[in-house]
User: What shape does this take?
Amino acid sequence: VKAAVFASGTGSNFQAMLDESDLACEIILLICDRPEAAVIEKARQHQIPVYQFDPKQYATKEAYERELVTVLKKARVQWIFLAGYMRIVGSYLLHAYQGKIVNIHPSLLPDFPGKDAITQAFAAKVDKTGVTIHFIDEGIDTGPIIAQQTVDMYPDDTIRSLTKRIQQVEHKLYPKIIKQLVQNEGEL
Ligand code: GRF
Assistant: This one.
């Protein structure tokens, strides 16, 4: 089973997927919309092809998504895992990969959707936050939830220490859920 990862940033979740020896699928492509993103170097180190695109070069979201879908279909990609991809997936891509696009978000959705979820939770002084893995729909962090894991927040936490604790959970949870989804062909 072939999968693509969409990422725009550091790529620590991408790295966690590559480090998992038993993912039940093969990450064969990285799709990245930011040429300076550190995740690109991680793909290169693992000889994973990178498809880089610049959304500004296209008149519409549908125009670049049409091209992405052509690339994905040609590579026989069946699953898409978003890992710090900072764009909203549009209806063209959603329909081409219905039920096969998964995202990870660093909060217990529906709490703290959108950007800076960890900072939002920290500022709200919650005593628990966490990680959510969900299917994508047309909203921002609103699709059906697949799995959630709670992360405690302590009075002496800083954004940095909380981020670290959340990332540790992400790096274990995402590969585990990917494996389950792929093996169950998307059924939960
Ligand atoms: C993760 O916290 C993920 O939950 C969010 O974006 C971040 C990506 O981090 N969607 P990285 O690039 O995988 O290190």
In short: The beta strands are 2-6, 26-32, 50-52, 79-82, 101-105, 128-135, 145-152.
